[in-house]
Amino acid sequence: MKIFIRISFLGTTFYGTQKQSDKKTIQGDFESLLSRLYNEKVKVTISSRLDRGVHALDFALSFDAPHDNVSLSHLEYYLRRSVSKDIFIKEIREVDDEFSPRYSCKDKTYLYLIQNGENKNPLLNPFTYTPKHPLDIEKMKACLSLFKGLHDFRAFASPEGEEKTLLIIDDVSIEEKNHLLRIRFSSKAFLRYQVRFMVGACIYVAEGKLSLDEVKNALDNGKELHTRYKAEPQGLILEHINYPQIVENITNEPVLLF
Q: How far is CA 223 from CA 93, 145, 154, 189, 227, in A?
């Protein structure tokens, strides 16, 4: 039996989501807790490899239950009592054996938050990037528009090995409310650090450190930029994962403060 777990978490206390032998991670914590419950080693598959300090309002894991002696209701009860206070269990259900939290999604949406006013709210610092001076929103919009569609994102990521860098960004948007910028990217797949490098490019364009032509040329042919910036991790949130085969039945979504 394959079991699907949907969670949200505060990334501040985790060294990312992928298991590391000597660090606290989402995958590592769940493998430890589930192995203790089933009294057998349990391997967990995660939906995305997020960096240290990145948060998630929607994140998924799955595992093959070693036996059927643990009901879903008891599993949920156990996990809710046992996980870190920085993790919230949103949903647990059984899924088909062919389901993959990584490859079965139609698309993912990432949200990046920037405090863009002269007056900063320090209570939002754990979830936002705070530039020294307000950014030019029109320049950011112009830069963001370049990322939509099919492009070579080699210059805006850290691809590994022979990883394909020609990808499609389905949608991009930016909105401002009370001097808080909300930047969103939606796509089926993202490269390592891609969102942070794309946001970093927008910040550099807004600050006059990078031109729109340089960004466009890099997207057209994968040419390296003369300078690039990886935006800080705490402003990045995995906001939503769309699984067409799963009808969402979540009535206890977390309350948003931004």
A: 45, 19, 8, 21, 12
Question: What's the residue count for the chain?
Answer: 258
0.90 surpassed by pTM: yes
User: Whose CA is closest to 176, among 212, 211, 132, 141?
Assistant: 141
Examine the residue annotation and report whether 136 is marked as an active-site residue of this protein: no
Give per-residue pLDDT as tens, 22-57. 899 999 999 999 999 999 999 999 999 999 999 999
Q: Is the pLDDT of residue 96 over 80?
A: yes
Q: Who's near 92: CB < 8 A, 6+ residues apart?
A: 3, 4, 5, 6, 72, 75, 76, 79
Tokens of 198: 């794309």
Q: For the stretch 98-119, what's the b/e string if a residue is b when 16 or more beta carbons lie within 10 angstroms of its beta carbon? A: ebebeebbebbbbbbbbbbeee
Q: Which domains does the chain have, with CATH numbers?
A: 2-104 (3.30.70.580), 107-238 (3.30.70.660)
- The residue annotated as part of the active site, out of 22, 29, 51, 68, is 51
Amino acid at 247: V
Contact (CB, 8 A) for 215 and 155? no
Q: What is the DSSP letter of 117?
A: S
Q: Which helix (H) or strand (E) element contains residue 183?
A: strand 180-187
Residue pLDDT, tens place only, 146-196 = 999 999 999 999 888 788 999 999 999 999 998 999 999 999 999 999 999
